[in-house]
Amino acid sequence: MGLVATVMAVLPLLAPAYHVLLMLPFMAYAVILLGLNLLFGYSGLVSFGHALFIGIGAYTGAVLTTHLGVRSLELILLASAALGALVATPVAALCVRYVKIYFGMLTLAFGMVFYTFLLKFYRLTGGDEGMQVLRPTLLGQDLGGIPKTDYLVGPYYYYSLAVLVLAGLVMWRIVHSPFGLCLRTIRDNPTKAEALGISIVRYRWLAFVISAVYAAVGGALLGPPTGNVDPTLAYWTHSGNIVFMTLLGGFANFFGPVLGAFVFIFLQDTVMSVVPYWRLIFGAILAAVVIFAPAGLMGLVARRRPAEVAHT
Amino acid sequence: MMLRAEGVRMFYGDFCALDGVTLAINAGEFVSIIGPNGAGKSTLINVLTGALRPSVGTVRFKERDISGIGPARLARRGMARSFQLVQVFPDLTVVETLQAAVVSRLGRGTRVFALLERDSEVREGALEVAELFGLADKAHTPAKQLPQGDKKLLDVASAFALYPEIILLDEPTSGVSTRDKHAVMEILVSASKRLGIKSIIQVEHDMDIVFGYSGRIVALHQGKVLADGPPEEIKANEDVVNTVVGRKAGAFERGA
């Protein structure tokens, strides 16, 4: 891990700006997926509605910078996390009473409600045109004076990297905590977990809320690089994309989803530059992953190094 | 009085699975519930463990009504159970399974940011139970790779790791080879003494085991308590011998 972090730290000095820019959505998605996998990999619940929380984070940044004059990225991230948790609290309470396809469908339904809200509340959200995200200040530094690319490949890149590392460390502790162990008991055998006094609904609820906070924080990081947010961020296909990334990387491994996000972003970029039908290609890849590598790319790596994954 | 079922009746549609069962379990007792298939044993277990709410009657544990409160709350109040069809966490190792039980007992499951491996109380609690059940050398084996007999032991051991006051074992030796059954029972009895478990209730078909270990036997037949008393009294009860013990009469004579 240290090696990967080092490479990422020196990357802006070596790689062309174009690739460094691609790292920005990757890092945002990595944060989102670390959270999603607490639900997917560690709790066994597949959400098709987490774009809702990505949308909340992204629009929090947009509304704060354009309507309310708040430019500090720290405040934006904190507000996103708080709003994500606030919305997730009742949504999770309803969703976690169901499992499997019913859970998935319910999360999908809530996602669609929020998408429609973004589309229809034109005055607040700009409808289908979306909203601008003004360039946020980082740690109180107003960096409005430098060109946009310099801002993104420099300070913003390192800021995102710091958020990702912090989010990763916190999630590492969560999955290795007593709470993380309880989630795995529920995933493996809910009947037995309850017999051991572990309340299924309570733990799933908490996992859902934590994953929503991660999605909102990651969502807030997605806005500034493009300078724009629109309702497709909250659309259900976006929820599908992050599930795809998780499957691609492998949900059974802590780092699997992060790898999935990385491969997805760079593969999408490559494929889009060659053919316009990237979804066609990605559909075929998804089918191949599910059939031939259900443990994802990390599963392929881990087959050679079985000791690494044993205690995820 | 630890656990008391009073006038419990349970209907499934028109079918009456339990027909007025009254039963009291005291601290320090080892009680076996026996009966032919369809006598209502499973239903009684589910009622006693709060999984089912009886159609009529009450179930009280430590003076509080527990009908239908559900397994998780009951476990936290001090009643644990193991299952007839073995229940383990396939991808969790032996020690992780036991740690989960200890975490639950200590009420530490919502410690979201604490590192489990640094919690010595949880680690030692899990190891202690693993040793009591002879599972220590398999501590890091995932449950799905254990032989059937060890899965059964792990299911029971994790219930013991809750340090319950009363434990309900649904056929603890089913699926265990005849040769090992007594070894398993010895482990259960000594572990319950070690961990301060006050009462054991078991459902068991093997009359050797029933008569060898019980202080009291409750015989169920067609949803009613046919007999309730110490082993000698049950053995002398012709009704029980005919309906429950049946052709195995010879076997229990040897075991007794």
Give a verbal description of the structure.
- The complex is a heterodimer of chains A (312) and B (256).
- Chain A has one domain.
- Chain A has 15 helices and 2 strands.
- Chain A has a two-stranded antiparallel ribbon.
- Chain A starts with a helix and ends with a helix.
- Chain B is an alpha/beta fold.
- Chain B has 2 domains: 128 residues, 3-Layer(aba) Sandwich (Rossmann fold); 118 residues, P-loop containing nucleotide triphosphate hydrolases (Rossmann fold), CATH 3.40.50.300.
- In chain B, the strands form 2 sheets. In chain B, strands 6-7-8-3-9-10 form a 6-stranded mixed β-sheet, with helices on both faces. In chain B, strands 2-1-4-5 form a 4-stranded antiparallel β-sheet, with helices on one face.
- In chain B, helix 3 crosses helix 4 and helix 7 packs parallel to helix 10.
- The relative contact order of chain B is 0.17.
- The interface between A and B is medium-sized, with 28 and 40 residues.
Brief account:
The complex is a heterodimer of chains A (312) and B (256). Chain A has 312 residues and is mainly alpha-helical.
Dominant shape of chain A: globular
- DSSP summary: helix tally of chain A: 15
* Strand content range of chain A: under 5%
Say what oligomer this is. Answer: heterodimer
Note poorly predicted spans of chain A: 306-312
CATH superfamily of the largest domain in chain B: P-loop containing nucleotide triphosphate hydrolases
Q: Give the chain pair forming the largest contact, with residue counts.
A: A-B, 28 and 40 residues
